[in-house]
User: Fold this.
Amino acid sequence: MFKIAITFKRKQGLSVEAFRAYRRDVHAPLLLSIPEAKLIRRFVVSLPVQAPHWPEPSFDALVEGWFDSMEGIDALYLSENFQTKVDPDHINFIDLRTVQRMICEEHVVSGS
Assistant:
């Protein structure tokens, strides 16, 4: 199984609440509406919480998507539907200069 992990900051001037609402109520349904989204085996969005003894995170969200193969990742992200419908929406809530991506394979050290 392969995973794409993406971190990013919200668009400048967008409140945390507006960023989270847009991502949840507009962008996620848009992504899940394209047929290629069926290739995603698991999809998780992690959002920062107040942690007094820890430094402020350098991003506003961590998105993780699991796929059966590298071809599945490419089939989603390189598809015409993603390129023309989903990707253009990112500018509405993400500071595109801050996007970091990593394609990875998990190696569980502890737990299930």
Remarks:
- The chain has a mean pLDDT of 96.
- Helices lie at 16-33, 70-77, 80-86.
